[in-house]
Description:
Shape: elongated
CATH topology of the largest domain: Heat Shock Protein 90
Mean pLDDT: 83
Low-confidence stretches: 1-5, 7-13, 609-614
Distance between the termini: 21 Å
Amino acid sequence: MARMECTHAGQNTDVLFRFLVQSAKDRAIFGIDLQGHIISWNPGAEHIKGWRAEEVLGQHFRMLFPEDYRQQGRPETELKEAFETGHYQGEEPRQRKDGSLFIADIDLWLLRDDVGQPCGFVKVTQDVTERKLAEEALRQSEARLSAILASLDEGVTLHDEHGTIRFANAAAERRLGLSANRLQGRTPFDPRWEAIREDGSPYPGEEHPHMRALRLGENVSGDVIGIHQTGGSRIWLSVNARPLRTPDGRVVGAVSSFFDITARKQAEEERAALLARERASRAEAEAERRKLYAIFDQAPVGIAIFQGPHHVIQFANPVQCRFWERRCRELLGRPLIEVLPEELGPSIIEKSCDPVFQTGESRVFTEERFEFTRPETGERVERYFNFTHVPMRDMAGAVEGFMAVAWDATDAVRAHQRAAVLAQQLQDRVDFEQQLIGIVSHDLRTPLNAIHLTVSAMARRDELDARTAQSVLRIQSAVHRAVRLVSDLLDFTQARLGTGIPIAPRASNLHQVARQVLDQVDAAHPGRTLRVQERGDATGEWDSERIAQVVQNLVTNAIKYSPEASPVQVTTRGEDGWVCLSVHNQGTPIPQEKLPGIFEPLQRATSEVGSTGRSVGLGLYIVKQLVDAHGGTVDVASTPREGTTFTVRLPRHGDSRGQ
């Protein structure tokens, strides 16, 4: 991820910041310059949005918006609000690389430098699609629950901790002969109910089912109560009550359900019908259970159901049986400890089974390693599993067992291990190669300097004949090329090893730097035409020697890759806060497939270069590193009609990263 610095910070702070950004896997965090171009991209952004860093860096962040939002100018609106207020926040659709949309929670912050000037933005995006879907699902669930309660033939009332009715469904209104408004606020102690038992004795309010559920914290089922309907006759109700608890177990209310059994007391037929309905319900539940087990049997993961504190196996699908290396019919009804290998059983039970049954909390295990010996063959086996244990509860809410879902992660773990080894080997090789280049290029300077001094001394001697003088000049030219090659290799090594190419900014004039370089290039290439155009104020603070190196590399590159008869156009110009350098030639255009990697090391734009102009392909790479060190940008455009133009933009006050 590219660095974006607006303030000077200590090394530890910088490391911590980059660690926090890189480790934020559930949030896309990326930097944007003042014009809206993406300049950093963390792994969370790649995970959420689908684009890799190299696909988005330098692109305008409008690419992340849906098409209709781009047409409405929403990207620009966000930047404007963040720039004016310092912060933009929203929750709206965004687009992934594959074109799919997701709901994003967005924070766009304006960044300022040490002197308080705006220098860019940082954007934090979180995918809240699942949360939105969950909220919608909850809303729909509540709507369905209301619809279900409204459609029930069974009366349902909700009571607070004092027993006062706070809710009544339509069936309750019909059974009790009162509207919901008139029911709310009533308690079992209200004498207007005229409540009695089956034997005709008064039914005390404190003995009402939901009052007992509140007092005892237990379910109450099947109490029969006779009440007097307002404006009507007496009816008989069968009442159930269940306490309502907070997550910490505190009873805060109760729900009562009841149905009219008046007809049952008048006719035995109604009782038989109710019993038949109960049997049908049980049969349906059993059928649903068998259907669920049939689905489990086809699942591609291991599924098992355990009952009781000894974790007796009630069900195991074929995949789980293969994990245990047992036949399914041998497992049912046996405690889990008897199925597991002796050397692993106690630790597995203690670590992953007992806590679920005892606490009622789910447990998730990732890439758990199991090593055991097969008793039949003595073979030593190592396996890795991902598995989840979820508690199962009875009607009263007590944990009666748990369900386990497991899948074999052995192949994935071993693949990760092999990949880590290969990655380390590759990194070791890269480090060695880079260090070797640095050592060789550094040690070459001593003999080259000796040759350069000797040849320079020879060139100053008056008694040299013309042939010898020409030979000395060729040697001197060759030494200059070798010195440039060594310098390029040293710069390359510093950049690749992470130390960066050092710069020393001071007051400079790009017009003057370019003219000095072009005088030297013109002397070395007397047959070429160099055109220079200067516009505006080109002063600023840079390392003039390094900027001269940028100009020389780009102009030399333009001469190499263009016909001898064609001119090379060099333009320097000043802009608000920036100065620009453009180098244009009319040579063979750079192939489009090579443009994305043109600034990578050991790359060439084309193979159409004579033997005298060959290099190791580091010139443009070093240009990019030097421009980056000054906080600038370098771009290239190349077409058959327009030719090839390299454009460098430098901030007038440079950047301290290369110091």
